[in-house]
Amino acid sequence: MRFRPLRITFVLPPPGLSGGIRVIATHAEELSRRGHRVVLVSAAKRPPALRSRVRALLSGHGWPRADGLGPSHLDDRVLDHRHLADRYRVTDADVPDADVVIATWWETAEWVARLSPSKGAKAYFIQHYEAFDYMPKRRVDATWRLPMHKITISRWLVDLARHRFGDYDVSLVVNGVDLQQFRAPPRGKQRVPTVGLMYSTIPWKGIDTSLRALERVRRRFPHLAVRAFGAEPIDPKLPLPDDAVYVERPPQARLADIYASCDVWLCGSRSEGFGLPTLEAMACRCPVVSTRVGGAMDIVRSGENGYLVPVDDVPALADGLVAVLSL
């Protein structure tokens, strides 16, 4: 059968350094390598609302301005990325005619739903249930009911589509990991017991829970070392231990070394669509102790290649870390 390349458009929110953007970039890159014609269209970031600006000013962070296009996982890739620097939503005029057009975030699903049929068959790539406290839940939920084919990355999202929204025609495309990038040779335990984690002040990332678990582990291992990376400066209200080694915005090429420098990887999240660091750490021969969230529920076999514990259960997280460090 003769190969016919498809014209595929991904419609994105303002791109950044989130794992979700990295997953989209990887899919776009691999589809392009297979011969398909892929275009990514992203909207501009909305300026902060007046209330948010006043709150930032009163808290001592100064008067925030609308950000331009900052660093993102689309940088340094050979992709046809069309960023709309002065428009906050994507319309027909911004999108080429194609065979398939893919929404990648709840708000982009609203935009894609309004596009003309000439823009392609409509699909919705769902990487999380985005009804966070600061999002309009009714609008988020409404996007799950739109007549688009849904593609998700974790079994819990498939179950959510089926049981909450009555959609049984959902494709599961689980995230993978590049074993040329995320790999490490066999090794023994670190000379000093070492825990790694990703640092984020987003509430559902659960850094407060992780920090309390580390405090408990240090009662058993007083010389515990902590390694962490993240995309933001350390918040004085949520400080890492004084002797922790923190790398802000590490280059992708350095991540494997960070994972390989740890005896165990900690994820204390309250919610995850998938949670790429869990998979990446395991690829680098680092066992994981995680809450029961996201992709960890699909790839961690508790007591075999890591431990899964209830969300916000600090003692259970600490016990899991101690169990791995005591091996």
What do you see in this structure?
A 7-stranded parallel β-sheet has the order 3-2-1-4-5-6-7, sandwiched between helices. The chain is of the alpha/beta class. The model has no long low-confidence stretch (mean pLDDT 94). It has helices at residues 19-33, 50-58, 106-113, 137-144, 155-163, 207-220, 252-260, 276-283, 296-299, 314-325, and strands spanning 7-12, 37-42, 80-83, 100-103, 121-126, 149-152, 170-172, 194-199, 225-230, 245-248, 264-267, 288-291, 306-309. It folds into 2 domains: 7-172, Glycogen Phosphorylase B (Rossmann fold); 194-325, 3-Layer(aba) Sandwich (Rossmann fold), CATH 3.40.50.
Shape: globular
Largest sheet: 7 strands, parallel
Please tell me the total number of domains. Answer: 2
Strand residue percentage: 15-25%
Instruction: Give the strand order of the largest sheet, numbering strands 1, 2, ... along the chain.
Output: 3-2-1-4-5-6-7
The chain-level mean pLDDT equals 94
What is the N-to-C succession of helices and strands?
Answer: EHEHEEHEHEHEEHEEHEHEHEH
Give a quick precis of the structure:
The chain is of the alpha/beta class. It has helices at 19-33, 50-58, 106-113, 137-144, 155-163, 207-220, 252-260, 276-283, 296-299, 314-325, and strands at residues 7-12, 37-42, 80-83, 100-103, 121-126, 149-152, 170-172, 194-199, 225-230, 245-248, 264-267, 288-291, 306-309. The strands form two sheets. Strands 3-2-1-4-5-6-7 form a seven-stranded parallel sheet, sandwiched between helices. The chain has a six-stranded parallel sheet with strand order 10-9-8-11-12-13, sandwiched between helices.
